[in-house]
From TrEMBL:
Protein name in UniProt: Cysteine synthase 1
Domain Tryptophan synthase beta chain-like PALP per the UniProt entry, residue ranges: 24-311
Organism in which the protein naturally occurs: Guyanagaster necrorhizus
InterPro entries: Cys_Synth/Cystath_Beta-Synth, P-phosphate_BS, TrpB-like_PALP, TrpB-like_PALP_sf
Stored NCBIfam families: PRK10717.1 (NF007989)
Top-level class of the enzyme under EC nomenclature: transferase
Ribonucleoprotein in keyword set: no
Enzyme Commission code(s) on record: 2.5.1.47
Top-level taxon of the source organism: Eukaryota
């Protein structure tokens, strides 16, 4: 259940020092996306998860699953943590493992960026890039991680997709932070999902605290089945199509998603053409250097704000009553920075091969310098 281990990684906001890498996880700023909000007549906020010390939203989940395993006696001093990951959970785990003295072994699909593989190795993780095959294939990176842990003494597969300590980390930290930062005055929350931990943990918390007033929506890349699952009232289809966005999209209902997926207000798919244009736009107008899932999330937040269609001005929150904002207030997640994808997202040649060059407005093409 999500409510166990409340307060495990939550800290009061403070300007003082924190206790090591682990103490620096969480308490990220909520950024008002000013230009975009003014342009669209809505109030769009991005939770700056790229500011976590390991550089992504997954630091919270990595710490959550390790703390949960330690508490339950599943992970002992000198033990080995094994995980299947698109990269960010692995990076979070590699940091946490270094900070706590565990060996870290990572299995990841070989379609992921070289930057993430290099970083994992620099952090001391053992990395096994494996062919990107479907979940029902025994050679899928997740199953390989599970089997490796089974065959290794004193090792634990942290199982980020189905271990709800992941969603719980967001229920006890990300959700309460957003609630505090918006003073509880929030029309919608939307984000994409990989494991579903962020969406389920934050969504459950905001739904409970707002008494259902805050709508929770899911954003999906092409190649994921979740939009059609939600829109059809629960029918799972085959995966078709693909996306440039790394770390998101799903072909099944994970345990983490299962805690919320049937209570969502809706879902929609965002095309890569829109995500890449937003990625460059956010760099140009806000100075934000973000990964593609963050850009997808912001496209979705704007669409949701338009759907919710509020036109009135209200104070942002009770302790900032002079901060009046128009339209619907929607929060999304800025999952990570572009640093770990720059050889792709800022390469003219890569964009060309993906057929995305023409999606970037002419005046923004100057940022594709690689
Ligand atoms: N964006 C990026 C870049 C990610 O790596 C991930 C996690 N794979 C997500 C978003 C989605 O987070 P979650 O696993 O909590 O659904």
């Amino acid at each position: 259940m999500l409510s166990t281990a409340r307060a495990s990684i939550r800290r009061p906001f403070t300007m003082s020092t924190v206790d090591g890498f682990v103490g620096a996880i969480g308490n990220t700023p909520l950024i008002y996306l000013k230009t975009l909000s003014e342009r669209t007549g809505s109030s769009i906020f991005g939770k700056a998860e790229f500011q976590n010390p390991g550089g992504s939203v997954k630091d919270r989940a990595a710490l959550g699953v390790v703390q949960d395993a330690e508490r339950r006696g599943l992970l002992k001093p000198g033990g080995t943590v094994v995980e299947g990951t698109a990269g960010n959970t692995g990076i979070g785990l590699a940091h946490v493992c270094r900070a706590r003295g565990y060996r870290c072994v990572i299995f990841m699909p070989n379609t992921q960026s070289q930057e993430k593989i290099d970083l994992l190795r620099m952090l001391g993780a053992e990395v096994y890039p494996v062919p990107a095959v479907a979940y029902d294939d025994p050679k899928n990176y997740n199953h390989q991680a599970r089997d490796f842990a089974k065959d290794t003494p004193n090792a634990l597969w942290t199982d980020q997709f189905d271990n709800t300590a992941n969603a719980n980390a967001h229920y006890v930290s990300t959700g309460p932070e957003i609630w505090e930062q918006t003073g509880g005055d929030l029309d919608g929350f939307i984000c994409s999902t990989g494991t579903g931990g962020t969406l389920a943990g934050v969504g459950k918390y905001l739904k409970e605290k707002s008494g259902g007033k805050t709508q929770i929506w899911l954003a999906d890349p092409p190649g994921s089945v979740l939009t059609s699952y939600v829109s059809s009232g629960g029918k799972l289809t085959e995966r078709t199509g693909s996306s440039i966005t790394e770390g998101i999209g799903q072909g099944r209902i994970t345990n983490n998603l299962g805690t919320l997926v049937n209570e969502l207000s809706g879902a929609f798919t965002v095309l890569d053409t829109k995500s890449i244009a937003m990625l460059y736009d956010l760099l140009d107008t806000e100075g934000l250097y973000l990964g593609a899932s963050s850009a997808l999330n912001v496209v979705a937040a704007v669409e949701l704000a338009e759907k919710l269609g509020k036109g009135i001005d209200r104070p942002l929150c009770s302790n900032a009553s002079n901060f009046f904002l128009p339209g619907s207030k929607v929060v999304t997640i800025l999952c990570d920075g572009a640093y770990r994808y720059q050889s792709r997202l800022f390469s003219k040649q890569w964009l060309e091969t993906k057929g995305l060059s023409d999606s970037i407005p002419e005046h923004l093409k100057k940022y594709a310098v690689l």
